[in-house]
Each structure stands twice: as structure tokens, then as C-alpha cells.
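User: Here's a structure from my thesis project, written as C-alpha cells. My advisor, Dr. K., wants to see whether a designed sequence matches the one we expressed. Can you design one independently, without my sequence as a hint?
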């Protein structure tokens, strides 16, 4: 056993964010329905499905769409399952294998009425969405989700080739693979948001700011899990460590500083939003609130689910200290081409065993305590 607990410090990037946590009142009921529906597809082995269920993916849209009607929340929950099932499959696929999956999905989404021998999770999601979504939101979703899927193929090729991007190049790709743009289409399902608003440079910049905030926070909270599973090549923390020669704590501090700059850019950008008249302006305010809430929702879900921290999320959210997970053996990730969802509940045992032996934490820039480095 190590003489010290190896700890990682997670900066609290949203301490002054004006949009508070809220959760949709339909969450519990919809979660039961969507989780059962996802299991019916049998996309994962029983063991992986159990680990997948612990991630509580329905909680993320419930936090992101706190005022959405029940049906739109259900659609948002099904979309999250599409995202994360695809994430698990693409993580172990080659570039060519991922492209094959993506091409099938794109055909299904762009041709929803085509007769198919087997219907998959994304068929049901889109069939439900097009029943109630406004035509403008459908167009915006298809455009942004197609871009997202194409970017997933690029990520798979990078992983296959061992290609590590520079920071700017990484951010450009990650803004797409984080999946915010198709996700916020749920916010506009009940409105007809004009293209002149959707594509306006000021609005597009605000969306990019929230995408950057979410990806920074996500790459910080997911780093521990991904370094353990050997899937940290597509990570801002790994990229910053590699390109700037920083250790883990230094990379976390760099990311937190960049997050603060982006957050300020978003808040300053609100004053630049033009007016389109009272009726459209009301839609714009609702839309901007919807994207801003996503930053808070994503952060809260990272600690409230068990995807990244097992059962210790609330404690880690409070202390900001994460015990570094050991590396998993390759067969723990993939078995015979089968997706094996990593279960990080082992963190509870690891942390409990090592804590009495002391901690290893180094002073850092963004914590009144310390920024932890290994």
C-alpha cells in the first residue's frame, strides 16, 4: 500500500455563477420510464448496464431543463442515453468502426420513416422528438448533432493514431464533442427560434462560451476516471500537461483560470445581445437562460451521479479533493470486443484503505487550501 494518499484538487469554478441549481419536478417519474426503456434495448451486458445505471444519466437533463414539460424532459433523457451509449461504444472502436456506427445513426435520423429490420435507441429518441418539437428546433438539432457525430469519428481516429492535439486545436474539436449544441435544441423544442437569432454571431459566441465552460469542468471531473481507464487522450488536462509541461495540479489550475476568463466573456457578452422586438426578445432570453443553466447542470451532475466519483461525489464536491484511482488493466475495459462500462465505485474502498496513511497535496494557485499534484 502507498505511504500517502495521492490526491487531486478540483477548483470550484462556478462559485459565483448567477444561475443556481434546480431540478425538473418530473425527474423521478421520467427516470423510471427512461431507465427501463434503455435496458429493454440490451445495448450493454448486465454488468455494464449496472455500472451504466449508477451514472444516473437522467439526472443530467433534469438539471439542465428544470422547467421543461414532461414530454420534453423525456426526450432530453433519451438523448442523454444516446450520447453516453455511443460514448462507451466509440471509446473502444477504431476510426473505421466508429464511422460505420455514425453512418447508420445519421441515416436513421435523416430518414426517420424508413422501414428498418431493427430499431435502436436513437430511432426511438428521434421518433418521439419529431412528434412535438418545433420545425426550427428539429433543423437545428439535425445540423448540430450531425456535426457532433462527425467529430466523434475524428476523436476516434485521433485515439487510434495516438494523435494528441495542441490546446487550441483540442478546444476546437472538444467544443463539438462535448455535445452542448444538440443538447440545447431541447430548450427550443417548444419555440420557433428564428435562424437570424440562432446563427447570430453574438448568440453563437455565448453558446461557445458555455460549451467551453462545460468541457473544462467535465474534463476536470472526468480526468480521474479517464486516466484510470486509459482513455485520457481526449482530455484538456492531459493536453495541457503535455503541451505546457505542467503536472496535474498545474493543469487543473490553468484550466480553472481559463474557465474564469470564459465565464467573464459570457457575462460581458450578454450586454451585446441585440433586440429583435418584444416577442422574439422573450424567446431569446429563455434560450440564453437555457444554455446558461447547462453550465450549472453539468457541474452538479458530475458530483451527484456515480460516473466519476462513485458514491463519494457529494463529499468530493464539498472538499474538492479526489483520491487518484489506480490504472485499470486493459481487460477491465474491453472483453472480446464487448463494451465494459467502468464502475468507479472502487474509489470508496481505495480511499478508505489509504487515508489513514497520510496525504500528498502540493500548494497551488486556485485553492485557499492547496492544489494537489502527484
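Assistant: Designed independently from the structure alone:
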Amino acid at each position: 500500500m502507498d505511504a500517502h494518499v495521492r490526491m487531486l484538487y478540483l477548483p470550484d469554478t462556478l462559485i459565483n455563477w448567477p444561475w443556481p441549481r434546480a431540478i425538473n419536478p418530473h425527474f423521478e417519474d421520467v427516470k423510471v420510464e427512461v431507465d427501463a426503456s434503455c435496458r429493454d434495448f440490451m445495448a450493454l451486458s448486465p454488468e455494464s448496464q449496472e455500472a451504466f445505471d449508477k451514472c444516473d444519466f437522467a439526472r443530467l437533463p433534469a438539471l439542465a431543463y428544470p422547467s421543461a414539460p414532461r414530454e420534453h424532459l423525456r426526450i432530453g433523457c433519451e438523448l442523454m442515453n444516446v450520447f453516453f451509449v455511443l460514448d462507451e461504444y466509440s471509446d473502444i472502436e477504431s476510426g473505421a468502426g466508429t464511422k460505420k456506427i455514425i453512418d447508420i445513426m445519421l441515416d436513421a435520423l435523416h430518414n426517420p420513416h424508413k422501414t428498418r429490420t431493427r430499431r435502436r435507441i436513437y430511432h426511438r429518441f428521434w421518433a418521439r422528438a419529431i412528434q412535438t418539437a418545433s420545425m426550427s428546433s428539429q433543423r437545428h438539432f439535425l445540423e448540430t448533432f450531425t456535426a457532433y457525430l462527425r467529430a466523434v469519428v475524428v476523436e476516434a481516429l485521433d485515439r487510434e493514431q495516438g494523435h494528441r492535439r495542441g490546446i487550441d486545436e483540442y478546444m476546437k474539436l472538444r467544443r463539438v464533442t462535448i455535445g452542448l449544441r444538440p443538447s440545447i435544441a431541447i430548450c427550443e423544442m417548444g419555440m420557433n427560434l428564428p435562424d437570424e437569432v440562432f446563427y447570430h454571431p453574438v448568440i453563437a459566441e455565448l453558446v461557445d462560451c458555455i460549451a467551453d465552460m462545460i468541457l473544462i469542468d467535465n474534463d476536470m471531473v472526468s480526468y480521474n476516471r479517464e486516466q484510470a481507464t486509459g482513455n485520457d487522450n481526449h482530455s484538456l488536462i492531459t493536453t495541457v500537461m503535455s503541451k505546457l509541461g505542467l503536472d496535474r495540479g498545474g493543469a487543473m489550475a490553468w484550466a480553472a483560470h481559463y474557465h474564469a476568463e470564459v465565464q467573464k466573456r459570457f457575462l460581458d457578452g450578454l450586454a451585446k445581445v441585440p433586440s429583435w422586438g418584444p416577442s422574439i426578445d422573450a424567446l431569446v432570453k429563455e434560450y440564453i437562460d437555457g444554455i446558461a443553466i447547462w453550465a450549472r447542470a453539468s457541474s452538479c451532475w458530475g458530483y451527484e451521479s456515480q460516473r466519476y466519483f462513485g458514491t463519494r461525489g457529494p463529499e468530493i464536491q464539498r472538499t474538492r479533493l479526489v483520491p487518484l484511482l489506480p490504472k485499470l488493466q486493459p481487460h477491465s475495459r474491453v472483453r472480446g470486443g464487448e463494451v465494459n462500462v467502468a464502475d468507479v465505485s472502487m474509489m470508496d474502498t481505495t480511499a478508505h484503505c489509504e487515508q489513514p496513511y497520510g496525504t500528498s497535496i502540493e500548494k497551488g494557485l486556485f485553492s485557499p487550501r492547496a492544489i494537489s499534484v502527484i
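When you compare it with your expressed construct, this may help: Confidence is low (pLDDT under 50) at residues 331-337, 347-374.
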